[in-house]
């Protein structure tokens, strides 16, 4: 089962590290407990919408940017999962077409 | 404050209506209480990641599709909010450039 909170946690941590901020700094700015923020980042706790908004503000990042990144990462995960049930061979005529296309370039 | 759960609720309801399903059908398939799902759709309750996954499955919609739609709608809201602090006039030279560009087409 793909869990949204794990991607939210990863994205929040990545944005924090990108901004070179510590957990303590973000927790302080967002007025949330440090231990709680740490659990959210590790995907162990669900963050309420209010806390998400506060943390996004602390990271100076629009919540839409965070949620789009979450959606993109979920798509990669779901894409990978979908791939695993798709055969890893292609019909010969498609392979020939692809090779021909490569040759033209 | 922009609340993620309100957009999640709107998106879940829109996808449900698109599929012409009732609250009762989705709640049944997702094994969540009807009243709870209704509150989630109205943005009154946070849905846990497990419930989001179940509801997405009940709607036969990847969770990544739902979260990307949430991100897109949040972006519109934040864009509108950002617009309200941007002056609604443009420098004269930009307006002239824009008019010239239109004239060429």
Topology overview:
2 copies of one chain form a homodimer.
Chain A: H1 4-18, H2 23-30, H3 34-41, H4 49-58, H5 63-83, H6 92-104
Helix pairs in contact in A: 1-5, 2-4
- State the CATH superfamily name of chain A: lambda repressor-like DNA-binding domains
The third-level CATH topology of chain A is 434 Repressor (Amino-terminal Domain)
Using CB atoms under 8 Å apart, which protein chain pair has the greatest interface?
A: A-B, 26 and 26 residues
CATH class call of chain A: Mainly Alpha
Sheet/helix structural class of chain A: mainly alpha
Fraction of residues in helix of chain A? over 70%
Count of runs of 4 or more consecutive helical residues of chain A: 6
Instruction: Give the oligomer, counting copies of the same chain as homo and different chains as hetero.
Output: homodimer
How would you describe the shape of chain A?
elongated
Secondary structure: number of strands of chain A: 0
- N-to-C CA distance of chain A: 42 Å
The total tally of domains of chain A equals: 1
Average predicted confidence as pLDDT of chain A:
88
Strand content of chain A: under 5%
**What's the SSE pattern of chain A?**
HHHHHH
**Uncertain runs of chain A with pLDDT below 50, 5 residues or more?**
none
Sheet of most strands of chain A: none
Radius of gyration of chain A: 20 Å
Question: How would you sum up this structure, described in words?
Answer:
2 copies of one chain form a homodimer. Chain A is mainly α. Chain A has a single domain (4-104), classed as 434 Repressor (Amino-terminal Domain). Helix content of chain A is 71%, strand content 0%. Chain A has 6 helices and no strands. Chain A has helices at residues 4-18, 23-30, 34-41, 49-58, 63-83, 92-104. In chain A, helix 1 packs across helix 5 (63-83) and helix 2 crosses helix 4. The longest helix of chain A is centred in the last third of the chain and has 21 residues, at 63-83. The first copy, chain A, is elongated and about 60 Å long. The model of chain A has no long low-confidence stretch (mean pLDDT 88). At the A-B interface, helix 1, helix 4 and helix 5 of A face helix 1, helix 4 and helix 5 of B.
């Amino acid at each position: 089962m793909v869990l949204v909170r794990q991607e939210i946690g990863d994205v929040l941590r990545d944005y924090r590290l990108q901004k070179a901020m510590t957990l303590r700094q973000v927790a302080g700015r967002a007025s949330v407990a440090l231990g709680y923020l740490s659990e959210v980042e590790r995907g162990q706790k669900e963050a309420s919408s209010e806390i998400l908004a506060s943390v996004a503000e602390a990271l100076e990042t629009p919540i839409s940017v965070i949620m789009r990144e979450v959606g993109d990462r979920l798509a990669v995960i779901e894409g990978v999962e979908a791939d695993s049930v798709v055969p890893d061979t292609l019909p010969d005529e498609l392979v020939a077409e692809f090779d021909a296309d490569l040759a033209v370039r």
